[in-house]
Amino acid sequence: MLGPVEAVGPGGPATLHGTRQRVVLGVLALHAGTVLPIPRLVDVLWGEDPPRTAVKTLHSHVARLRQALEGCGFPGVLVTREPGYLLTVPLVAVDAHRFEQQVRAGAADLAAGATERAATTLRAAVALWRGDAFADAELSGWGRREVDRLHELRLGAVEDLWDAELRLGHHEEAVRELPRLLAAAPSRERLTGLHLLALYRCGRHTDALDAFQRLRRRLADELGVDPGPELLALHTAILRRDPGLAPRPATTTTGPSQLPAGVGHFTGREAELAALDAVLEEPERPVVVLSGAAGMGKTALALHWAHRVAAHFPDGRLFLDLRGENPDEPLPGGRALTHLLRSLDVPEENIPGDQAGRAALYRSLLHGRRCLVVVDNVAGLEDVLQLVPGTGPALLVVTSRQHLAALSTRHAVRPIALDAFGHAESVALLDRVLGAERVRRERGPAARVARLCGGMPLALRIAAARLVGAPKRSIAELAAELAGAGRLETLAVEGDSRTVQAVLATAYRPLAAAQARFFRRAALGPGATFSAALGAALCEVPGADGDHVAAGLAATHLVTAAGAGRFRFHDLIREFARQCARADEPPGAHAEIADRLVDWYLVAAAAANRAIDPNRDLVTPSPRFAAPDVPVGTDRHAALTFLTAERDNLLPVVRFAREHGRAEAAWQLTYLLTSFYDTAGHWHTRVELCREGAAAATGLGDPLAEAEMLRALGVAYFMTRRLPEALETNAAALRTARAAGDVQGEGHIHNNTANAYAELRRFDEAIAAHRLAVDRNAAAGNDLGHALSQRNLGHTYVRMGRAQESLAPLTAALTTFRALGNARLEAATLDTLGEAHLQRGDHRSALAHLGRALAVSRMLGDRWLEWESLLDTGRVHLDRSDFTTASNFFGQALDLSRDVGDRHGEAAALEHLGRARLGAGDLAAAREHLERGLAVRATVPDGYEQAHLHRDLGDLEARLGRPADAARHWATAAALYTQANATAEAREMANRRA
User: Fold this and answer.
1) Helix H segments across 72-188?
2) Residues 666-707: pLDDT tens digits?
3) In 3D, which of 976, 978, 954 has the Cα closest to residue 964?
């Protein structure tokens, strides 16, 4: 907001259209984390005279704004929250919030006498401005006051900054810069006073008096007032050449000051700096442990903070590098104490010869002294124990790649772990090093560089340094180089040995053999995270050993905990580990590791499938090595939990299997994972998974496997509403099954084909296909398939409005499912019976069946069935005009659909929720849900469902007394219903228009 309004995400800048979109985004960002009510947003857009369509237009702006934010990599951050909207981004990601935080910190430092720190902070704050606030957005109402407030804060920050600069003796710079600032704000008395003082201290006594007179005349001519008492007093002091106007000498400290220079362009780490500042307020000084992976900026943070708080430690600021990152050249503990004692002015002859004596003298010298001791690159616990001061005001800050958790058993410890920068901090660092204008010209490429550096501060600085050294080179060119092969080699600057690769090597070399092997092999997996159990299998060690080694790697920050027993690599550390694997693993090991990884997932998926759906028994995997231990037992919920944790890895693992010559394993994995996706949702991923499985099976020339995978792909297309593709794939599956003589498979495929026809409202074809499914399953002796075909036939009768005819096949199917002990399909049939009773007007029976279906689906952890039961239960309450209860069920269905990534389910839930709010008379909420439903429905087209949304929006406009708008929506609904073969619904829309 501190300039043109823009949002830059991992995918580059958001595409914003029009000033009002920018206004909405800007004010929501100003109030990030807080709900802005709709009336407040209307006021900021249109002021006191909003148009009749203001709320509707606002909803449209929000819908398009959501799409823009999703497009730049910020999905789901703009949410509806009664009574308005909420932007769920961290405050640090908003420049105006960072500015205000830095201004407050700078003003506090200035008041406390920490002038150098104040100047540094205030310079950074002022540098955030890129022009006038909201430069390309026109705000009304209270928004104008917000802009005025920001501009006033900016001027106040500039005045505080130059106050600090003058205290630091920068009078010449002030004389050059302040006239430019006064040209924009000529009536600012404090700014004028700073200018007078700068002129006076530069020996320009007369010029200072002339500047005062110019302001006096301006105030008299324009406002009819005299300067204030503070400026008058300064003028008098200048006339008298008051000695008190001379620069004050800088505060001196009596102790040693060994801190190296801080890193240039320090950026971010606001939360960590706040945690460090809080240490100063604690009555008992803890040992501060800054830990993190190599390259995460531990030393930079320690030194930046140490310089900021130097005034709190006037008796000394000691610094010692133990070189713990270099096992070949560490500084022994005894020598460390000797160095520190020398720093405290102890003559060589007075330094005790034994370690205990040196430690005792060190503590004695620090007792009662306000000293800061920064010990960098601590390798382990023993290196730091002797360096802890006794009681008193002295503070020890250590940096380490280890957590040093054991230190807390002996001393008070304040651990602060550093991870990679977030995207906003990464881009901010590039902005500061390269200059705001250069980054602004290439926002998208800068975002890509930030992403390719993985938020690692060292990598970002190296990338920026390469661009600084080549000012004519585009950021896009470097981004392309980083995206290619050899990213680690690219992250190096000629003449500087501290490359990302070299720094990571110092963390790898000290590892024990078992740790190094685990580190290399775990990095070869294709998933975003990995489990300790998988690592153990890849290293051929027991699971307990894998847990121990993984915990050790996490303690050194070479991997990061990502859940119970799960870990992840930073992108650059993973790439380095893979380089180590290429260099250090024996010939042929990579193929064996790949096989062991595929085996582990195959055995784990088979165990999970048996727990989730034992009826899916087509595949019995045959691993190439002895079956590994897997953390999956017979408990259904535990199996679902395991696969949920692994969910992001499943598709990459199937691809990995194909790429490494394990085509049979690829299609078997796909088959075994189907029960998980049936239960948990995430069907868009399932489409890609089934495509991989089908390609693998086709390549094998196994017709039974190919038919099974095509059938699975057809189901995946059906679940994602890609119905023409589902029919085409089912036809191919049917041909393959017939060629293979798979009668049971034919029955399943006819069933799936019938379901697709029913969704397309081609009911005659659906009924014919259902009957074929019933017959083929009966011929194959497949009781489960036969009952499933009956259930789906009954469901289609319900869809046709023939509820009475549905009861016989549904009741027969329910009896079979109960006899077979198939709770999942029992719940699905109960749900459909609930729909049938709703259609018959029997609300009591409908709620009874749906209540049982919901209970069973929740017991099983089946998210899709739970969503369907929630939606259908809400429909019963809607039919009873119980709009509050209906909204509650629809809201639960909406949350669940978003949780599992089901866009069709989300759109359907929004439509029903909009209808319920319409019935309740909450027209603003109804519009919001319905228009959001249209936006979501555009991503998963379904003409029939889209027609419902336009029907409801027409009803809404009619309630608001807007017949033309209502007729337009009803006409659209009628056309869509006609296209969807819903002639009765189309006639109803025509009647409404009449």
Assistant:
1) 95-112, 115-127, 142-167, 171-184
2) 999 999 999 899 888 788 889 999 999 999 999 998 999 999
3) 954
